[in-house]
Amino acid sequence: MIADSFGRVHDYLRISLTDNCNFRCFYCMPEEDYDFTPASRLMQPDEILTLAKIFVEQGVKKIRLTGGEPLVRKDAAEIIAELGKLPVELVITTNGTRIAEMLPTLIAAGIKSINISLDTLQPEKFFMITRRDLFHQVRSNIELLLQNKITVKINMVVMKGLNDNEIKDFIEWTKHNPVQIRFIEFMPFSGNKWTSNKLFSLDEILATVEEDFTVLPVKAAPHDTAKSFMIPGHEGSFAIISTMTAPFCSTCNRMRLTADGKLKNCLFSDGETDLLTALRNKEEILPLIKASIWSKKKELGGQLGKHFETLDADSIVNRSMITIGG
């Protein structure tokens, strides 16, 4: 069992396979010409599996693969196949561009739920956000997942003045499609130009939806980061991840392993523990893991206060989102 000093048991591991991505979303990647981590400094397939097994032996029940874009890694299929043999729930977050070619691998590994990052339903705005003309490919792949009875959750980062006017369009999508839309409050990371006036809050999102729809709350499952809701008559549902205005730290069970093998005990932690170097030096890994999680702060990495309006994003010590893995 892996626990922190506040009694929170951690049984959910997020593994970033790469900091590379075929998109260039401004809120995730600091600039277009980005220096990706050299392959030699990334965890290799056998190292990922070795570390994952250590976590599973300590009670981890769920592993989520992230990036960058995890499916652009050349050996992603090999890694997914091996992790699929572990006694855990294996899931993935992806931008959806490579679903069609990777679908047999995903199904064979037992992946039954996939999160797709999609911030707009407008092709022109999609190109502006991602700097890539791949909107229709992503939408086609989402339909492919639904046809194969794979649960689809859509991660939509809501940014005031950019896509908050599409909230109702996303809700309309759930009327005849069994997708869950996950509206995510815009969060500050290194290089993403976060300011409080871009944040569209939990209350604002709910108020927007309730203008046209009847909204009913759904009972939260243990460790849920999202507040879930349903609309009578809709096949799908929606949820809100309110990291900034109503954080869920008290029930957090998540650990993050970056693509270069660093363990972060919180998305906003200012420190990290180098597991990959220790592994390559044949050092004991478990004591490092336990020490890292034990040192976890009570809330938001100890860096973010509860009043986001006064937050100075430049004062936060952290990586960019793409190098953390979300």
TrEMBL record:
Keywords: 4Fe-4S, GTP-binding, Iron, Iron-sulfur, Lyase, Metal-binding, Molybdenum cofactor biosynthesis, Nucleotide-binding, S-adenosyl-L-methionine. It catalyses: GTP + AH2 + S-adenosyl-L-methionine = (8S)-3',8-cyclo-7,8-dihydroguanosine 5'-triphosphate + 5'-deoxyadenosine + L-methionine + A + H(+). InterPro entries: Aldolase_TIM, Elp3/MiaA/NifB-like_rSAM, MoaA, MoaA-like, MoaA_NifB_PqqE_Fe-S-bd_CS, MoaA_twitch, MoCo_biosynth_MoaA/MoaC, rSAM. It is an enzyme of class 4 (lyase). S-adenosyl-L-methionine binds at residues 27, 68, 117, 187. Its cofactor is [4Fe-4S] cluster. Residues 5-224 form the Radical SAM core domain. Pfam families: Mob_synth_C, Radical_SAM. GTP binds at residues 14, 64, 93, 153, 254-256. One of its GO terms (biological process) is Mo-molybdopterin cofactor biosynthetic process. [4Fe-4S] cluster 1 binds at residues 21, 25, 28. This is GTP 3',8-cyclase. The gene is moaA.
